[in-house]
Design goal:
Blueprint (H helix, E strand, L loop, with lengths): L1 H13 L3 E10 L9 E5 L12 E3 L1 E3 L2 E3 L2 E5 L2 E4 L8 E7 L2 E8 L7 E3 L3 E7 L6 E7 L4 E3 L5 E7 L1 E8 L10 E7 L4 E7 L5
Parallel strand pairs: 1-17, 3-7, 6-12
Antiparallel strand pairs: 1-14, 2-13, 2-15, 4-5, 7-10, 8-9, 8-11, 11-12, 15-16
C-alpha cells in the first residue's frame, strides 16, 4: 500500500515538472523576428493574472520602452515618464480604450488590461511614438530576442501555442499551432506571414 501511495505521489509530481522549450519565430523567408510574442495555453491554468500583477511601459527619449509589452489578462500597467517633456498616452483599440492626458512622472492609477488581444498605443504629442500591449490568457508567455528566440518552462503534454508580431498588421489574430512537449523539453519553430518592413 505504501509503495502504491509513493508511486502515485511521484507520478503526480512529475506531471507538474516544467521542461525548457525553445521557440524560434521567423518570417516566411526564414528570417528571425525580434519582438514577436509567443504564448502557450496549458489546460488547467488560470487565464487571469494573480491579484496585484503589474508591469511598466515607460517613456524614455520620446519612445515607448519596451515597444512591445506582453502581459497576462488582468495585469495593471503603469506608464512612468522618464522624459523631461510631457506625454499624452492613449489607445483606441477595442480591447482597451484609455487616455492619460499630458503628464510627467508616473500617473497614480494604472491601466488594467482585462481582455485578451492587442492594444495599439500612441502619444498625442509625439506622433512617432508607437507601442503594442499584447494581452494573453495564460501565464506562459515570452517576447523573442534579436535572434527571434524565446524560451519557456512548460509542463509535458500537448498545448496550444500562439505567436504574434506587429508586422502581421492591425486586427490580425495570432497564428496558432499545436505544441507537443515531452518530459525532456523541446525545440519548436513557427513562421509568421508578416508584411515586409
Amino acid at each position: 500500500m505504501k509503495t502504491l501511495l509513493l508511486h502515485g505521489i511521484l507520478l503526480g509530481s512529475s506531471a507538474c515538472i516544467a521542461a525548457p522549450v525553445s521557440i524560434s519565430v521567423t518570417d516566411a523567408q526564414g528570417q528571425p523576428l525580434a519582438d514577436a510574442v509567443v504564448s502557450v495555453e496549458v489546460k488547467g491554468t488560470k487565464p487571469s493574472a494573480a491579484p496585484g500583477a503589474r508591469a511598466d511601459l515607460a517613456q524614455r527619449q520620446r519612445a515607448f520602452d519596451p515597444k512591445v509589452l506582453v502581459v497576462q489578462t488582468g495585469t495593471a500597467v503603469y506608464f512612468p515618464n522618464f522624459d523631461t517633456v510631457r506625454h499624452h498616452v492613449y489607445s483606441f483599440s477595442p480591447i482597451k480604450t484609455f487616455e492619460i492626458k499630458l503628464y510627467a512622472g508616473t500617473p497614480a492609477a494604472p491601466v488594467v488590461f482585462d481582455k485578451p488581444g492587442v492594444a495599439v498605443l500612441g502619444c498625442n504629442i509625439h506622433d512617432h511614438m508607437l507601442a503594442h500591449v499584447v494581452v494573453v490568457d495564460t501565464p506562459y508567455f515570452a517576447r523573442t530576442d534579436a535572434q527571434g528566440q524565446a524560451t519557456l518552462q512548460l509542463p509535458a503534454g500537448e498545448h496550444a501555442m500562439k505567436a504574434w508580431h506587429a508586422r502581421l498588421g492591425e486586427g490580425v489574430a495570432p497564428l496558432q499551432q499545436l505544441l507537443q512537449v515531452p518530459d525532456s523539453g523541446a525545440r519548436s519553430s513557427i513562421a509568421l506571414p508578416v508584411k515586409p518592413q
